[in-house]
Amino acid sequence: MKLWVLRHGEAQPRANTDAERRLTEHGREQVLFSAARLLGQPLQAIIASPYVRAQQTAALVREALGFTEPVRTAPWLTPESDPQQVITELERLGLEQVLLVSHQPLVGGLVSLLEHGHRQQPAPMSTASLAQLDGEWPLAGLMTLQGLHHCG
């Protein structure tokens, strides 16, 4: 399995609720920079948090890649979601090439859990950071971090 984990681009500091925060212009540029790393990858699904900034990030990536499937929205990808639940959901999906679009602290904890089997050292995921993990199964401690790319 190849799993890419993308944190949303830079978002506005405030909105009526955290879930309604939108990408800034800089955030949109960051997302396009990260999306370029996914060109040519045979993605089967783009799955995003329901929060506006993650939905906008996923839509930008989908458009940049010419990905024809709709973005899937998952309630288990919000900032405070449990990384173990994400792993359970990925196992249930049974896909081989997936992009997740979400938030901190979830993304840092998820990458650490998949790579090390624990969340004690979360991966440093800044806005629009993209992690690539490979492994037979999406199980704690059994995936290898192939790359962690940050926007310049």
UniProtKB/TrEMBL annotation:
Entries under InterPro entries matching the protein: His_Pase_superF_clade-1 (IPR013078), His_PPase_superfam (IPR029033), SixA (IPR004449)
Domain of life: Bacteria
Identification of the protein by name: Phosphohistidine phosphatase SixA
Originating organism: Pseudomonas farsensis
Gene name linked to the record: sixA
